[in-house]
Amino acid sequence: MLDYQIAIPSYKRTETLAKATLSMLKKHGCDFSNVTIFTADKNETKAYSAMLGMVGIRAEVVTGEPGIGKQRIFINKHYPVDTRVLSLDDDIYALSIVDENKKLNPCDWTIDRIALKGFQTCEKVNAKMWGINPVENGFYMDRTTSIGLRYICANFFGSYAGDAVWTATDRKDFSSGEDFESTLRSFVQYKGVVRLDGICPKTKYFAQGGICAEIGGEDKRKLDHHKHLTEIAARFPHLCKTYKKSDGTTNIKLKPVTRGKIAWL
Fold this sequence. Notes:
This protein is an alpha/beta fold. The chain has helices at 14-19, 21-27, 42-55, 68-78, 111-125, 164-167, 178-190, 211-214, 218-235; strands at 5-9, 35-39, 60-63, 84-88, 94-98, 104-106, 130-132, 144-149, 156-160, 193-196, 199-202, 240-244, 250-254, 257-263. The chain is built from 9 helices and 14 strands.
């Protein structure tokens, strides 16, 4: 049995959390005694505790920090050093798995099995971060585990408490692009991150509420997103570059580095 904790940062989305991530975890056989929800203030802590009582789930609620960048750092310091931590966004509605024909199907793995695959692979190759495929499109997925430089999206990733990727004195606490910074820092420090290429989440990227509401709305998010991603790319010019998406939003493209690939079956 793998010993690990599940951390869910959330901001004013009790209903979303109940309908999405908590429901998904229940479907995948989660032990909720290992789950902690991290809120931005004490009033939110009360609201989330009340929600858990209404849906009949026993999980811990901890008052953390406002701003997802600061919250990630808080979560990293909350647990004893080297604790395995699976971090999830509050709006993961389902998980899908790709088959040999690039077709997506409902994922039939338990959350324990996914965590076991991620953390055991990290420990085998001396990495400290793993994630799943951020793209819900079978064309871009494979039934392999990649080791190298791949984008580890913060909506579903594993890490180890106390890691200097988060605790370093020069670590930024940006709320926008913080997962790009974590991915790049982890790659530089440990020579690779791990990604399960064949599992992806069903979620809504940049949905209303949550981080957008927390940092001042959609317009401010776009301005901060451009500024912060530009700064991140400038610190890792040999590993990434910025580009504009079709809607004009700034994004980062990582240099693909592959140290190895492991077939699942």
